[in-house]
Amino acid sequence: MGNGQPFDPAVVADIARQLAKKPYVAPPNDLPDVFSNLNYEQYIGIKSLQQPIWMNEGRGIAVEPLHRGFVFTNTVEIFLVEDGAVRRVGYEPSKFEFGRINVPANLGDIGFSGFRLIATSSDGPPFDFAIVQGATFFRAIARGQNFGAIARALTLKPADPKGEEFPAFRAFWLERPAIGSNSLTAHGIIDSESASAALRMTFRPGDMTIVDVEMTLFPRVNLDHVGLGGMGSTYFYGANDRRNADDFRPAVYESTGLQMLNGKGEWLWRPLQNPETLQISAFVDESPRGFGLIQRDRSFDTFQDDENRFERRPSLWVEPLGEWSQGSVQLLEIPTDAEINDNILAYWRPKAPMPAGAEVPFAYRQYWCWTPPERPPLATVASTRVGRGSSGRRRRFAIEFSGDSLGDNLPADLKSVLTVSPGSFQNLKVWPYPERKAVRVVFELDPGNENACEMRLILEAGGKQISETWLYRWTP
């Protein structure tokens, strides 16, 4: 669908369907050297001289096409849909300021690498709230936040011994928002060696930014490792993992932990780590109700970082739309020695493989937020602290739960229920602090000769669970 043609969402799906029936063709490596060899500082120095599309039209959202360069080398075609007709956005070098970059005079139309969305509603000053750029990556934030966690429209074979496959955006058709709608719908094409896909994304910015994602996947080959609702983040070190802590800051991370609401209605909390070796965890489930990488620490004192302000990074919560059947929430924790790396990856992995030639639809809703819209009606984990134990390989744990139920009316029969497998624990103690509506559970893990111990901890009273479930994997 090109210039002047009527727009039909069904055609987007048909383009992806036809792509999947043909052998994969990699995008051309046609970016001029002057842009492909840029470092990060040079790339962000490229400034647009033109006003964002739809900026002063009262539509609530404006669009800024993003320049190619640095690691963003692939072309993403951008089309606008206005009054039902398609208009391609062409690249003109005269509309950019390049700083000290010596740009060739005959540059021509090299296209774009993605786009940025700006919220322009009357609720507050304009702010950049979403960036769609690089492979199938995209980011969003709520008002007042800094960019942090990153989403993936499609994840294929992560941590596979033969290497992960990175699908890529190829084209987008952006529907012009109605006046005052504060909502934008983008239709996209994804292509990769193993599959193509048609994508529909609806963005609604605000104090909680909501993104609805609908996709139909067209496998070229049999797929047995697909990630849906994928998201990445950074965990460098914190109170439970200070392996890389020669730093004046007490903690460095964008997300505190992985939260899950499984199909049985149980709330699970898994603190994140920066392990010595790659750790892959699978939380088997059926019909999950939600999962996400959550930033629970909203105090400056937690991080003491004047520049990065990790306490302002978004939580990203995903709710499936429709039936997701059997599968597992997968968590990958990748060792890193630098805080710039996204070393955390979480996604839903369906149990059933997707055969070549199939058409597989799925949908979910993302909440980029300060706090997810659905929260445990239980005491939640406020902190996980880990340090040296009494001897040998033993490790001391202190897990603090908080909630209204742990205040002045603390149940008399409150107890903690801890399981460790393999390994064992000693010196389990429960310390109530009703004045701050908190309970700390302290114990010592004895792993023996084991190199991995799985732990599960809850609070109980009156024979009922009154806290979310704390899960943890210890490794040396």
UniProtKB/TrEMBL annotation:
InterPro entries the record matches: Gal_mutarotase_sf_dom, GH-type_carb-bd, Glucan_biosyn_MdoG/MdoD, Glucan_biosyn_MdoG_C, Ig-like_fold, Ig_E-set
Any one annotated GO CC term: outer membrane-bounded periplasmic space
Top-level lineage group: Bacteria
Domain Glucan biosynthesis periplasmic MdoG C-terminal: 7-474
GO molecular function, one term: carbohydrate binding
Pfam families recorded: MdoG
GO BP terms, alphabetized: beta-glucan biosynthetic process
Pathway: Glycan metabolism; osmoregulated periplasmic glucan (OPG) biosynthesis
Entry keyword set: Periplasm
Compartment list: Periplasm
Family to which the UniProt record says this protein belongs: Belongs to the OpgD/OpgG family.
The name this protein goes by in its record: Glucan biosynthesis protein D
Naturally occurring in which organism (per UniProt): Microvirga thermotolerans
Higher taxonomy: Bacteria, Pseudomonadati, Pseudomonadota, Alphaproteobacteria, Hyphomicrobiales
